[in-house]
Design goal:
The protein is an alpha/beta fold. It has 15 helices and 10 strands. Helix content is about 50%, strand content about 15%. Helix 7 runs parallel beside helix 8 and helix 14 runs antiparallel to helix 15. The chain starts with 9 loop residues before the first helix and ends with a helix.
């Protein structure tokens, strides 16, 4: 039996090299950072105790109330309006991910949410990139190597997607690797932004689309077939096009297309459980989708709101589905293959960091 067929312990999972494609900057702040900045700017919080505030975020997002869920982001965005605060949040994001064993991350943010106090979109983007760079350097002093890149989000319900997409192209040599649309799916289909996606394709720019999370198969179909999405943000509802009551499972036309084309699924189990896509980890579609060899990746979405990390997501999947080192390595390599950095850079991380790391830790 290969050492990669063994079941990893939580301590081993923590040390494994990881790749992350779907993580929101405004969903991963340190509670103490929120408190520090809120006090400086006079923003009222539900609690000024870091432990209590972290629990408030988690409980609010577990409540099933959309109003309470959205309220959590009003607090994180409120403390990300000054340039120095954005730099701090981005720096701490890189450090925190590196401490969890993440070696490559694409972190996304809608710059339009950071302009309430007068910052321009460009100034917000540059502050994030400065923070990521500082965080990478700080992580290195702690013995952790990480590369953090930025995905720019346009908000579906607003009218700034084209401007943000143009900035994604402008900054693509400086750390911005792609574009995304976020916000409510229901009532705001991806095709509303079709002109923007056609612009990105003309510019040979990468983009992913939030689809198949709160809304079903039509959202996924539009994202892929009308808009040309390279990846699906979540994509969990693709399970609705698969008949699992048949042996072997029968894939519908859309599910078969997604699998055949190796379209990556940016799956975020804890977040999906909070939003009702699954009752618990054991019932999450990721288990069946991985068995059916969809290009599944594991992600955190909003680390603060879900009280999670890549290590926790992986540990829960090991418990729920008895995943081995090999299963975790597969989703990690899937993520790197699906990343928006150049092929040579992806391959270098896989061959020099991921594969040796998994072999060394599994052999212990």
């Amino acid at each position: 039996m290969s050492t990669l067929d063994k079941i990893p312990t939580p301590a081993q999972i923590k040390r494994l090299p990881k790749a992350l494609l779907h993580d929101h900057l405004d969903g991963g702040l340190r509670p103490q950072t929120i408190i520090d900045i809120a006090k400086e700017i006079g923003h009222e919080l539900p609690s000024y105790d870091a432990v209590e505030l972290a629990e408030w975020f988690r409980a609010s997002c577990d409540s099933g109330s959309l109003v309470r869920y959205l309220e959590t982001f009003t607090h994180t965005v409120a403390v990300m309006q000054r340039r120095e605060d954005i730099v701090r949040v981005a720096r701490e994001c890189a450090v925190d991910l590196a401490r969890d064993g993440v070696v490559y991350a694409e972190v996304r943010m809608a710059p339009e949410l950071l302009t309430e106090k007068g910052l321009t979109l460009s100034a917000a983007i540059e502050a994030i990139l400065e923070g990521f760079s500082a965080g990478e350097k700080e992580a290195k002093t702690e013995g952790n190597n990480i590369r953090v890149t930025l995905l720019l989000c346009g908000m579906r319900q607003n009218q700034l997607s084209q401007e943000v997409a143009e900035l994604a192209v402008k900054y693509r040599e400086r750390g911005v690797v792609g574009f995304d649309i976020a916000g409510p799916e229901d009532g705001f289909p991806p095709s509303d932004q079709l002109d923007t996606f056609e612009y990105l394709r003309r510019e040979n720019a990468h983009f992913t689309i939030h689809a198949g999370e709160a809304y079903g198969l039509p959202s996924i179909w539009e994202a892929i077939q009308l808009c040309g999405a390279e990846r699906l943000g979540h994509g969990v509802r693709i399970i609705d096009d698969i008949d699992l009551n048949h042996t072997p499972p029968r894939l519908g036309r859309l599910a078969a297309y997604v699998r055949d084309r190796r379209i990556p699924l940016e799956m975020c189990p804890s977040s999906n459980i909070q939003t009702g896509a699954a009752a618990n980890f054991a019932d999450h579609p990721i288990g069946d989708l991985a068995k059916l060899r969809f290009r599944v990746t594991v992600n955190t979405d909003n680390r603060l709101m879900s009280a999670t990390s890549m290590s926790r997501e992986m540990s829960e999947l090991v418990t729920a589905f008895n995943w081995s080192f090999l299963d975790l390595q597969r989703v990690t390599i899937n993520a790197l293959k699906s990343s928006f950095i150049p092929f040579e850079e992806r391959l270098a991380i896989i061959e020099t960091v991921v594969k040796p790391g998994y072999l060394a830790i599994s052999a212990e």
